[in-house]
Amino acid sequence: MRSRSPCSRARAWSASWAYCCGLSPLRLCDVNMRRSLPRRSDRLDGGQGMAESAQAAGRPGERGGATRLEAFVDAAFAFAVTLLVISVDAIPDSTAALVAALKSIPAFAACFAMIAMFWASHARWSRRHNRDGVADVVLSLTLVFTVLVYVYPLRLQFGVFFAWASGGWLPYPMAFDGTADVSFMFLVYGLAFASMSLCMAALYGQTWRNRGRLGLDAATRAEVVGELAIFGWFTAVATASVVAALTTPADDTSLRVGLPGMLYALLGLTGPVNLLAVRRAGAAAAVRRAPVAAAGVLVTGTDTGVGKSLCSVALLHALRAQGLRAVGMKPVAAGCEPTADGLRNEDAVALLQASAPRPSYADVNPWALPEPTAPQLAARAAGVRVELAPVLAAHARLAANADVVVVEGAGGWLSPLGDGIEHADLARALQLPVLLVVGLRLGCLSHARLSVQSIEADGCRLIGWVGSAVDPAFERRDDYLDLLRAALPAPCLGVLPHAPAADPALLASNLAPAASAIAGTR
Ligand SMILES: Nc1ncnc2c1ncn2[C@@H]1O[C@H](COP(=O)(O)OP(=O)(O)OP(=O)(O)O)[C@@H](O)[C@H]1O
Ligand SMILES: C[C@H](N)[C@H](N)CCCCCC(=O)O
Ligand SMILES: [Mg+2]
């Protein structure tokens, strides 16, 4: 949540000013954003620059290169600005004509700022939340359509405003025939402004609807509410102006001409409206979710069946040996048996039994899917859609009574946890570093390096890796460990020897360095 600084009022007013002038292309307040892995097929850079783009984006999880939709929207906005420029009638052929042309600059600049503000708003939404669903595409294209349709009315509106404000020194761009014409101009302008604002509000509405699946944290949710408040406020003010233009009595000239325009002064309250909404949403989230001081780690592997569960259970024992309250979690388990108590998964039961204090099964394993296959398939077979919201809630309950929560993934790093949900989404939503379990067998060098590349490209933090001797016949295991130590950018935090049917508690001492590193993240 944001802090309430003494200068927040000043910030609110400057925020209003910046938004209304279109000078705030990026967020006014900095909050960590978390979003899902970009779909590589959509990327114009062909996905080659994942690492660079994730770094260039500056925040973990932000999208780097542009999708085709983003490229189209950018091009359309650029075209709209071009329309403004070429609407200057002809090349001046005298000093007087040049001065007259220069006098159109204020209107052009204001209109440019307005269009730039909507472009920047869309770019900001797109980079952080866009999933290119049908609704996202339709709303984005509607925004483009509206901008292109209204580009000239916007220009005329601003031209008239500057002519009026300069007492006629700047030229009127159109002739007026009575107050009806002025009302009509406000009507068109108000409709344009309201339509564009409504499109942006609807895009953020989409983000809000999908907040669970996107795994947005409390701060990001509060920010989305803030953006909704901004564009909702814009829409309300423009609609009020339209209503005023339509309903003020025709015989009251000053009211008819003045009221629709004066109502736009209310845009000066945009900053306070935004801050109020963000604070209320942030406060509500804080009440729902008590601050969590627990440390944690997301255990992933170079593949399924490489020893993530063995490692996670042994890690719980190692953490407990350091005097910590350590609980395990298997958020999504594909492969559950029906029991008298409900569906039960082997990994989740082992994690639960190694946990102290003992949590409820439902919190350890919020998504218990019967079929032992990819979680997406298992979820479809069970007729459910995996979402992150129950996972976040269960994790918060576990963390409230623990010093450390060890979260085991499903399959490898790029095995989706559900439709549209990646391990990276989980790591970001829970703000967990990642521990990679490398199944020591022929081929693991490539699997380990690819996994590390992918974890880093997703903007997640690799705390280290653990070797697990899954293959008893693997003769070059020690040589491979040397190669892995040299090749991987994070430290080796333990090696589990080949120990079939071993009690994980006996392997805890092998993971003491891992336990210390994880406990140190508190
Ligand atoms: N170091 C080891 N020594 C002996 N057996 C091991 C070792 N590591 C893993 N195994 C065995 O390999 C099998 C798979 O291990 P485990 O269940 O820990 O894998 P996992 O990565 O958690 O798989 P999943 O993706 O299904 O969760 C188990 O039977 C386990 O006992
Ligand atoms: C069923 C299995 N033991 C795991 N629970 C799920 C493994 C999912 C692997 C998905 C993939 O192919 O990457
Ligand atoms: Mg497992």
Set out the fold topology.
Elements: H1 8-21, H2 50-57, H3 68-86, H4 95-102, H5 105-129, H6 134-165, H7 179-209, H8 211-214, H9 218-247, H10 253-262, H11 270-288, E1 295-301, H12 308-321, E2 326-329, E3 332-334, E4 336-339, E5 342-345, H13 346-354, H14 361-364, E6 367-369, H15 375-382, H16 389-400, E7 404-408, H17 423-430, E8 434-439, H18 444-457, E9 462-468, H19 477-487, E10 492-496, H20 512-519
Helix pairs in contact: 1-11, 2-18, 3-5, 3-6, 5-6, 5-7, 6-7, 7-9, 7-10, 9-10, 9-11, 12-13, 12-20
The site of 7,8-diamino-nonanoic acid has 10 residues, from loops.
Detailed description of the structure:
With 522 residues, the chain is an alpha/beta fold. It has 2 domains: 12-24 and 67-288, no CATH class; 295-519, 3-Layer(aba) Sandwich (Rossmann fold), CATH 3.40.50. Helices cover 55% and strands 9% of the residues. It has 20 helices and 10 strands. It has a 6-stranded parallel beta sheet with strand order 2-7-1-8-9-10, with helices on both faces. Strands 3-6 form a two-stranded parallel ribbon. It has a two-stranded antiparallel sheet with strand order 4-5. α3 packs antiparallel against α5 and α9 runs antiparallel to α10 (253-262). It is elongated. The two termini are 19 Å apart. The relative contact order is 0.10. The structure holds adenosine-5'-triphosphate, 7,8-diamino-nonanoic acid and magnesium ion. The site of magnesium ion (MG) has 4 residues, from α12.
